[in-house]
Fold this protein.
Amino acid sequence: MPSMRDAVVVGAGPNGLTAAVELARRGFSVELFEALDTVGGGARTEELTLPGFRHDPCSAVHPLGVGSPAFSAMPLDRYGLEWLHPELPLAHPFPDGTAGVLSRSEAETAVSFGPRDAGRYRRLVAPFLGRWHTLVPDFFKVPWDGLPRDPVTLSRFGLLGLQPVDWLTRRFHDDRARALMFGLAAHAIAAPTSPATGGIALVFALAAHEVGWPLPRGGSQAISDALAAYLRDLGGEVHTGVEVRRLDELPPARAYVFDTSPTALARIAGLGDAYRRFRYGASVFKIDYALDGPVPWTSADARRAGTVHIGPSSREITAALHAAVEGERPHTPFLITAQPTLVDPGRAPEGKHVFWAYGHVPRGWSGDATEVIERQIERFAPGFRDLVLARATAGPPELAARNANYVGGDIACGAFSGLQALLRPKLARVPYATAHPAVYLCSSATWPGPGVHGMSGHNAAKAVWRRLRERG
């Protein structure tokens, strides 16, 4: 009979890997199981188009990764993780050839907001600059789990961050400032009228100034591989190519931690309809490109930015997000794009580039958004299509097939709207615990939500080790 483990983790995405590492670091015996043949979840790198072109099927740029309290506490650089910073974290081009930018410099960013809004932006972010390493641990932990490190700053941030982004941006005179902030909030895949979208925009803006928006050398797989290597060195066991269908298929353990969707956890652990009220959100249509040269942006700032947002007005961004959330096919999508080979040329053959873009679509949508996405890119980069050597497209069905956590293609693993924006996956003193005393959830469906930062895994591991120590 196999020996009893302290913890078994199911799912080797960034949160499952982080939970496993956190438990192993504290002396617990850990075994991890992943259904696919490689670890990574939403942080993978593959040749999706042509030989020699290395693409990230999901996440590519990681401001919350480099700024994560969980990752910062680990020696991941010893395991090959190297962050590469583009000259500009973000550019948001406009039809006149100019762009709003997020720069490492708060002053340069403010200037790009326009003369009437530069001072307003500086006053908005000034209370939080230089406080990332105290603010973010408070923001990323369960709000009622202990006292905050800096309650005054956190309260000040909360008063702004709980607002919908369309409220937060009413302080600005010009739409270019509003459009840039709406674009930041759109990473949550929620309408600008949704609560806490102002907080999403603020976190991403502050990250640009405090820690940057870097990419891992070699692609997002480098994050997952570093976590897995560290886990093995701590004595943890990693099994890939093992799909878990029932709890009794796993080795005996004192705790089971799932980096899965809530519905998958309920099915595997026999929890019935425990998450019947959990809602999944809109999806995206993603295209990975192999290009014959760099994207020919009209804006000079866009040509030096690691991430480029395409949405010329707050009205257009709002319409695109509302269409996706309300189930309408995309006409003029808001786009989030990334240019990895600007800082990591080794991810493509010499002189070639990889490029990554997605627009929002309804959950489960089975259409093809290639034409509308490329039409948007051509508005700001004429001649783009002439550079395309190959493309790999993935709509909601393909995204769900690649990653079981993306139910209906929802890459956020749960809608970021209403109370669910803050109470993920449901209201509970310990949101990672379940009705089964030995079973826990650690995926992006739990607080603090989507992004490659490992904090859902870190917080879930904390709940597990507290329980295990209580039991001796």
Q: What stands out?
A: The CA atoms of residues 93 and 99 lie 4 Å apart. The domain at 5-35+242-277+416-470 is CATH 3.50.50.60 (FAD/NAD(P)-binding domain). The two ends are 22 Å apart (CA to CA). The longest strand covers residues 283-291.
